[in-house]
Specification:
The structure holds 2 protein chains of 2 kinds. Chain A is α+β, with helices and mostly antiparallel strands. Chain A is built from 3 helices and 3 strands; from the N terminus they run H-E-E-H-E-H. The longest helix of chain A has 14 residues. The model of chain A has no long low-confidence stretch (mean pLDDT about 95). Classes of the chains: A alpha+beta, B mainly beta. At the A-B interface, helix 2 and strand 3 of A face strand 1 of B.
């Protein structure tokens, strides 16, 4: 994983999302899809190169 | 038709309750619960075949092989938040699987399912009905093959089963 992964995870866990009824929730580490998607968004936004990864690759950075 | 009073019902259920709890020492209960075991009524377990894999290429990939023999039924679903559709199909153990459609055997390799993208609401796409001849039968070991025909640049794929314990 890129060396920026911890920063990406920290950023992901500081985000919120809105459901279809307008309720806003914080992203938690149990929400695997959102965490991975946001980490990927962080990589893309900051031009960080990465290859295929999954939630299990992020688990060391979640505690 | 016999008339039964509420009092008779109450006495009947109290007797059953006393028997189960062991209060009725004369007949002794035939039901016992080991220490540390709680009856929660929960008989559904979650099986994660692949957990939020962020695909960056169009290579063919496989989920883990999961032993599902302890479940009498499983609801399979996929969550695709990639910005591309993902093609999936099941295999039995690690082998090709084919089912009889009434006139010929059809291999799942050529009968795939495209999971549409939904990054906004993360829809759970239930996939049993695509292969009921396979997925709605007793199973032992299952895995899924998945591929992005076009390499995604965002999102991830998750495939899950909710299994009802035998």
């Amino acid at each position: 994983m890129p060396i920026e992964t911890q920063d990406a995870v920290n950023w992901a866990l500081s985000q919120t999302y809105e459901d279809e009824f307008g309720y806003v929730y914080p992203v938690t580490k149990e929400d695997s899809s959102r965490v991975v998607d946001l980490v990927r968004e962080y990589f893309n936004t900051n031009n960080i190169e990465y290859t295929t990864f999954s939630y299990s690759d992020l688990e060391p950075y979640l505690n | 038709m016999a008339n039964i009073t509420l009092g008779t019902f109450r006495d009947y259920w109290k007797n059953v309750s006393d028997w189960v709890k062991g209060i009725d020492v004369a007949s002794k209960p035939k039901v016992s619960i080991p220490d540390g075991v709680a009856l929660t009524g929960r008989n559904v377990e979650e099986l994660i075949f692949v957990n939020a894999v962020a695909l960056t290429d169009n290579a063919i990939k496989f989920t883990d092989v999961i032993d599902v023999s302890k479940y009498k039924s499983i609801t399979f679903f996929a969550i695709n938040t990639h910005n591309q559709a993902i093609v999936i199909y099941p295999q039995l153990n690690t082998q090709r699987a084919a089912y009889w459609n009434g006139s010929a055997f059809v291999s799942t390799t050529s009968d795939t399912l495209s999971i549409p993208s939904d990054a906004t609401y993360q829809s759970r796409h239930v996939i049993n009905n695509k292969w009921p001849q396979l997925l709605d039968k007793p199973l032992k070991q299952v895995r899924f093959v998945y591929q992005a025909p076009v390499a995604p640049t965002s999102g991830s794929l998750t495939i899950v089963g909710w299994g009802v314990i035998n």
